Amino acid sequence: MSTPFRIGYVPEHFSTPLHFAVKHFSLNASLIPYPSGTGHMITSLQSNDLDIAIGLTEGFVTALGNQGDGAGFKLIGTYVETPLCWAISTGAKRELQDAKMLDGKKIGVSRIGSGSYVMGFVLADQFNWLKNPGEPPFTVVPLQTFQKLREAVNDGTADFFMWEHFTSKRYFDNGEIMRIGEIYTPWSSWKIAAAARLAAADERLRDLFTKLDQGVEYFWSHQDEAVAYISSELDYSQEDAREWLKSVKFTTDVRGVQEDTIKKTVEVLKKAGVIGDEKDANASSMIGILRDEQN
């Protein structure tokens, strides 16, 4: 048997089709959870601790745009077609009541370069708060995990943070944190990245794509099982899991990435100052496996 891929993933509801690919279709992989998110997976791809990572588009593209070939990985697949809704949260008893009040505040992020970091620039760009290109519009407080982010906005270490809506919702409902806004990514939200040392012709990639497609198909045809898994193994209520199902669209053919999607992402991230103006940030060079634009 071939060597299993080491696949990094964020242990949230979006990981359910990956779980099904292993459980029901024998995907040959060792799944490694990264609760701290995409930025951590990028460093693990670079340090040879991961072969594959399923993470947020903005985190991957920022690293590729700023580091070029030195990033050590390429985009090879599209996992989720829909945008991501980032909820903007503060402490339950804080006086901040609206995202418009956040200019110059302290933003909690999981890691520098993570989605929660990158989207801070995008938020600031929407409110015209960016002063100098590439200069963080907020005081940045890296905190690693979602739990530490929640604690930080309550004890004053950070003023606000951004995290996926449904992952945050339980903590709005129980009064631990307060929602003061939201922002959507202007791009499809989850991509599949592979360490640059993997050849596009690697037979294990064909198996990965096939099994992930099967996992996605199983996810949609067995929604009760999906809800049971999400509500028992992950941090969501059944009600929230079912509501999320109405809003998400997984890719039915995960192989490859559309160049136009990455070009548009680069444009937004350059405008927001996340990718330096001096960087070439060529979209085609970020992609290891190109997807048919008609697909």
Task: Characterize the structure shown.
The structure is a single chain. This protein is α/β, with parallel strands linked by helices and 295 residues long. The chain is built from eleven helices and ten strands. The protein has helices at residues 16-25, 38-46, 57-67, 115-126, 146-155, 165-173, 203-221, 223-233, 238-245, 259-271, 283-286, and strands spanning 5-9, 29-33, 52-56, 73-80, 85-91, 106-109, 139-142, 160-164, 177-184, 190-195. It has a five-stranded mixed β-sheet with strand order 2-1-3-10-4. α1 links the parallel β1 and β2 (29-33). α1 crosses α7. The longest helix has 19 residues, at 203-221. The protein is globular and about 55 Å long. It starts with a strand and ends in a 9-residue tail after the last helix. The mean pLDDT is 92.
Shape, per Cα inertia axes: globular
Q: Give me the number of helical elements.
A: 11
**Could you tell me how far the N terminus lies from the C terminus, measured between alpha carbons in angstroms?**
32 Å
Amount of beta strand: 15-25%
Gyration radius (Cα, Å) is 18 Å
Largest sheet: 5 strands, mixed
